[in-house]
Amino acid sequence: MSKTFTTQTRPITMAILAMGGEGGGVLADWCVDMAERSGYWAQTTSVPGVAQRTGTTVYYLEFFPKLSGQNQEPILSTMAAPGEVDIVIASELMEAGRAVQRGFVSPDVTTFIASTHRVYSMQEKMAMGDGRVDSQVLIDSARSAALTFIAADFAKVAEDAGSVISSALFGALAGSKALPFNREEFMGAIERGGVGVKTSLQAFELGYAQATLALKPPSKAVPVSIGLKPKDAPSANLNALTPEEELAIINDPASAVGSKLKNLAARIKDEFPEASAVMLVNGIKRCADYQDIKYAQVYLDRLLSINSAEAQYGNGTAQVLNEAARYTALWMTYEDTIRVADLKTRRSRFERVGIEAKIKDEQMMQVREFLHPQAEEFADTLPTPIGKWILRTKWVNSLIEAFTRDGIKLQTTSVHGYLTLYFIARLRKIRRRSLRFNLEQGRIDDWIAMINLAIVKNYQLAYEVAESANVIKGYGATHHNGWANFELIMEYVKSNMNKADNSDLASAVAGLRSAALADENGAKLRAILAG
Amino acid sequence: MAERSFAAEVEKLRVGAGEEFLGEGILAVTKALLQSGVAYVGGYQGAPISHLMDVLGDAKEILDELGIHFENSASEATAAASLAASVHYPLRGAVTFKSTVGTNVASDALANLSSGGVTGGALIIVGEDYGEGSSIMQERSHAFAMKSQIWLMDPRPNLTAIVDSVESGFQLSEASNTPVMLQLRLRSCHLHGRFVAKDNVRSKFTLKEALEQPRRATDRIVLPPSSFLHEQEKINTRWPQAVKYIKENKLNEVFSDGTQDFGIIMQGGLYNTVIRALQLLGLSDVYGNSKVPLYILNVTYPIVGDEVIEFAKSKKSVLLVEEGQPDYIEQNIHAVLRRGDVPTKLHGKDFLPPAGEYTPAAVVKGLLEFLRKYAPELVDENNLPALVRPSGDKPNSLTTTIPAEVVHGRPPSFCTGCPERPIFTALKLAERETGSHHISADIGCHLFSILPPFNIGATTMGYGLGTAGASALHDSSSEKKSISFMGDGGFWHNGLTSGIGNAVFNESDGLTVIVDNAYSAATGGQDLLSSTAENKIRSTKHPIEAAVRGIGVKWVKAVHNTYRVSEMRDIMKGALTSKESGPKVIIATSECTLNKQRRIKPEMNRKIKEGKRVVRERFGVDPDTCTGDHSCIRISGCPSLTIAPNPDPMRKDPIAQVLDTCVGCGLCGEAAHAAVLCPSFYRTEIINNPSIWDRMKLATRKAIISRLQNRIESRMAGIYV
Fold first, then answer.
1. Cis peptide, bond prior to residue B90, ω within 30 of zero
2. Which fold has domain B15-133+140-197+218-248?
3. How far B464 CA sits from the closest chain A CA (Å)?
């Protein structure tokens, strides 16, 4: 700009968006201290309000050099002007999105430093299914909004250094060279702060390195690699395979299974399309883990009908077969008390809990489960006649209710607690005779039959029917509600499938699926069905 | 003990004459009070002036040295009434609270105070909670100043100006026998800056002298005929005295007059924003050397008519930058110009937004429109700042779009481990059985219940007014009772009488849940009458239950562990289905987790260092039994209970996960039990410095469990690679 608000006479402006407890205030204080030491006027304000209780705080800073012969104090603004913020720091990716939304980030002037990790919003957390926003959309918007974009998982950087994110971001700020202060002046501010100096400086170094990496020519906005792979993008899985790993399984499914499953893996290779190999390999392992090898064989047999329908009516993607394979495996390995006890008693589980609690050598660990078995769950696990008897016999119900009413806290790490769960897990041997086992097998077969009916009419509809199994999840009331929703959707499909025009049916079912996941009691789904 | 300690910062209050004071706005105001020879200070905490109360509390020693009496007032009304000490005695007194909500509460006392007038300077420091970050309704303190004839100061937002206005505020008060209100804007409270200090001053007249030689004067008491006299005095004596003082001492400022045939009038608090807007339009430098005449109202009430006319008469137009609504100042200046027969055109909310905060963006836009009308030659249309630049020529930050659906709101919520969260979990579960109820909310952290995931609460009528807000919703022919919430802060502020006493007297059947977390938590963890902590300067440990019973409630249930969700749910169900008449009160007591963690964390670390056996608890979720339905999150909302990518290769939805920030409050487990959720929750007990007994026990267990785990693994053999 040609007028007075030029680089020579304008203050350096900076906004920090941070959440409570992330040290945004400390970061602002370091900046002020550093600037004042380096011959600058510095001003900071913040709008915390109740934001310290999990909300966002915006810190706004301005710096202006003390010029020789000029005794007047500059007039600094307490609020940011959109498009005029030189440096924006966002401590989290959605906050980075908010900074862009608020117009803080300008492609003319803004050096934009953002951490790519996610602290999920309540809306994302509350969803019955996957409510997460796509990180890549946030990253792309942030990059296109800024002059210079420096992004990395600074939370991870800080954790690696045993420090907090503010130190890593301060390092990135130094590395961005957006402030006229050198590295030593930055580090001096941390040292004078006097709290956690060593770890803060470590995080500072790592943050500095990340920013330097990001600024490497020629591109003005080369993002650094760490954290940018959108692992948490919707539908993506934590343990997603690389294309190379997938290819290895497709070429040789047997390479991905143990000795007892080699035959079934060979069947996958021979009888099923390549596109579903990875899913099926996971499926047989899951079923074998859940029950036995024979159960894994049942799993593959169950999918044969869809396999041939896919060959006849499919489009080469094996989409329907894949989703059917996914949900058949998940449904066949439904979570009964046997399964829960089995999973909770494994060595790998004990190890995982220890890692999560960061148990050190000199510490010891005890684990207590919070279980609330219902009469129904007892009945589910027992042989069908006994199960049915329990369900219809009121006094047995009341007796179980009396014992479990307040829930059971079971210490799995104690001998007694472990043995209890261990023997429940051993009921696996009689699972095939249990009430729920037979119930679920019938339900699965009905659902598969429905997929086969649908695929003849409309491939996409078959996909939606397969995917509908995802509305059944959880335990107790949640599971009941899910099952009720599923039944409503299936009824809808059944009664509309044979209509002359069923071209919109697939998208209608997709709408019903998302309605079923919109609330806890199926209200939205019923409202839509009622028209 | 307040959440934030100013123990280190208060040393700055001793800075002497000529030295530079460097620090936060709140601290600067405290220093200014000491420099002004104040004799007593009171107030009620609330953003943005909570820290002012905390600073004063931490500065006890310095206040004692100067003989200053400091009170944590029971309410803003108490604080305002305490200024009565300045009515007859030449004592300077100051009180502080948030505005406008605190001013609402204080207004009875303020009206009486300003009717009779004051002898000693009386300063009311209001923290103006307006605009971004505000937690209250958007109103103006200006109205209170006008209705009671209290002079209102709104200094420029820099520490020197603010500190000066404290001192001139006292002088103005004394010169006109009128209380003065000093408006501190939200950002000014948290503003880091500097000023040159003066020495602290002891009050010449002391409280002791006042007590020992009491004075009275009937004509200062608000009763007829004096009250009629007061009204005349306000207009005919005190107002002219105030105007005289303001003019003589140049409290308002004029800059760059004569440079243009138009000008800008503004509230002092908006000065920096206006300068920034002028800078962006190329009409000022960074030091505020403006190319446009400026008249700055550091006193926004009363408006000094002569000054306005003097500034306006030589100009064809002036732009008034007045934040908030209604446009009191604009109306006032219109009247001044009309009466003075000055033809100058006055603009204000025709160019600037009629409502809402005056951000730099709002002021730049309004100012630009004004300039285009009156001085288009001053506008460099080819060089406009980004925020008013038409899109299409240069990249414009405001045209950069981000899909709205990917940026969610992040409203405040209960902290990790908050003892209030389980109360609402319990209510959600109770309502599953009793059906829904009309729920009246109150002010405090518990108001976060209105937001997801709880979505509980229909109205909130003010601090301590939860029960009062439900008082009309009472019908003996209905089975349903209303439910009200009230915090311990609101209870002591007024809820004991306005809500509980009212319900007893009017024989209401409703249920009131008093959320007692042992602090005034939402305002920063200050102590209250019922706080359980030792407090060296205040009397605590007065139980709410005794007060509730004392006022006549028969049905009282005290719950001393709010984390027991099932117990709380059952008590709520009991209250809602009780056939007993009269109000039902549940007192839900558990310590605020912020304060508790601040207390116990260092203690725990010390004990671990000393080699003592310390057990720390945290919760976890088994990823392989979690089906990703997130029911647990919907009845909790704990920040440490979140979602994570699913480690199961076949599942798509994210699993629930407990972060390392978990403080082991136990709600996850209790809720899983009470709501019959799922078996995925477990509690990990981490034993530091285990005893020999622990070691033996664990060795035995390990031997047995390990064998059985071998057997499980042998079953798994041949499945995985």
1. no
2. Rossmann fold (3.40.50)
3. 18
